[in-house]
User: Fold these one by one.
Assistant:
Number 1:
Amino acid sequence: MPSSHIELVIASTNVHKVRELRNMLKPLGCFDLLSLCDFPNYVQPEETGTTFEENARLKAEHAAKALGRWVIAEDSGLVVPAINGEPGVYSARYAGKDATDVENRKKLLDAMQHLIDEDRQAFFECVIALASPKGVKKCVKGSCEGLLLAKERGGGGFGYDPLFVKHGYNKTFAEIGESVKNRISHRRKALDKILPVLESLMEAG
């Protein structure tokens, strides 16, 4: 008999990311979803990776071993090819270690002020790693391409969402609403690739 529920820890304390992943994982139903907020004594490892994948694997492995549970960890960010791929893995701390989203966006706008039209192309990338206490079981990647505006638009979303317009859309991620974003985002694309593995875990119980 497969057990009805498996505990799965989302290895993040970022309330926005946790909420997005919870909403996307909810249809699976068979997981008790926890986040690092449920483990106040757990100390996260320093993100020393130079790629999203290295950081996702690092976070997943570390938390799975320390907490003795299945863990899903993600590392994501915005990549602007015209400025050497910045902010990249430093997306969350682009303007400094404790920078706010507003400060990060301002630094990015300043770095891009000389860029026009096609040079303002960018993409969000998300890598999700699934690990058990024995190690990483699966690592997948999703991306979402678009253009960056010169001025913020919209009050929703987080991070660089008010600047990012996905190709084929005329609204920023901060304007389209959570339910639409959760259907088309880089995080959604990555999660779709890991769902079959999660489903097989549920079946195995």
Note: Residues 6-204 form a domain with the Maf protein fold (CATH 3.90.950.10).
Number 2:
Amino acid sequence: MQNYVYLVGDPEAHTCVVVDPAWEIETIVRAAEADGMTITGAVVTHTHPDHVGGNLFGQVIPGVAELLERVPAKVYVHKVEREFLKGFGSDVEEVEAADTLDVGRIRITFIHTPGHTPGSQCFYVDGRLISGDTLFIGSCGRTDLPGGDPEEMYRSLTQRLMALDGQTVLYPGHNYGGPFSTLGDERHRNPFLRFASLGEFLRAMGGGRVIIP
């Protein structure tokens, strides 16, 4: 799936959170330890199994459950997708648009970006955007899966993300076009950010399915 998993933390406070803990939980924990960091939380862009663990096409993917077995941590998920993280009780914290989370001196701002899923969210951190499956380098998340909504995706891309400064560094949820870009570069090069109207965007999405023009 070529997922990216990120650690965001404060080197002075020696604390960090994991973005979308899945696949190689032992590697995630060891990477934090190697940098002298203690994992205190996990922030979730959305609750598809390749980002939080679970059963995907018959393959069991380690994720949030396995992380919580290794470290005591809170899990931050958008409130409309809380139901998909059952069984974790008080370890799960519901968040919504414009909420913030401080990790030492580092502040994470939650940006609700529905479209790929109803509770998809991005994380803004000091001039950087971790975009999950909302915005990729050269494309955007698909909207033909359950809960997907192409109209919401258009609004998330054009009204929420493109309102940010063009110098914002973009870190996507999958390696579909490289490890990073800037929102300014994507505004000029990404075909899904260049439609003049919602109608044109919907036609290109083929009724929900992503079709690169």
Note: The helical segments are 25-34, 49-52, 64-70, 150-161, 183-189, 198-205.
Number 3:
Amino acid sequence: MAESDLYFLQVPVGQMANLAYLIGSRTTREVVLVDPAWSVDALLDQVEADGMKPVGALVTHYHQDHVGGEIFGMQIEGLARLLARQPMPIHVNDHEAQGLIQITGASESDLARSGAGDSIELGAVRIRLLHTPGHTPGSQCFLVEEEGQPHRLVSGDTLFLGSCGRVDLPGADPEAMYTSLTQVLGQLPDDTILYPGHLYSADSSGPMGDQKRTNPFLRATSLEQFLMFMGG
């Protein structure tokens, strides 16, 4: 197997079991930050210590524990701190760009609006932006691809190891979640490695093949069965 160009770090952050990610190319030294809501300075310091250059941030969805803002009486620094320290494009799905602006105070000029099928290339690494609505209208997952290497799926709050994201919050859509899980994520190769947005399980990552066999929300064979699993 050829030597990988991928720079990839999973970083536990914050007080809600969040997982942030640093994804980049060792050749070009470019890196993007996924969901930098907590410990923003520490994430940027890590990038700098590794000799990398941050060129953007990727947002899985616009909830405050993933982008910053006030939640449960806490003020999370998030994208406001990131942009204050080093301006860079914030890649957010078009369906919730306006919500992101309202929550974080970012401006339209800070955003790089994305849609299904968009991708980002860093050296030999391609990051495909998969629109996976359900948890929120503009939820997106990031499929990290490199020739000759297993794919990695950074799934935000759409899919966890053994479970999936909530669909009882404002803007959530159980039917859309079912479609995202079964028709998008469930179609990925079994050797794709899942990296969720929260550490809600004993393991912090695992093969999609295992999830297809054991995760009831991926195993649901009908919308009715899925809704039953969700308590609806």
Note: The chain has a mean pLDDT of 96.
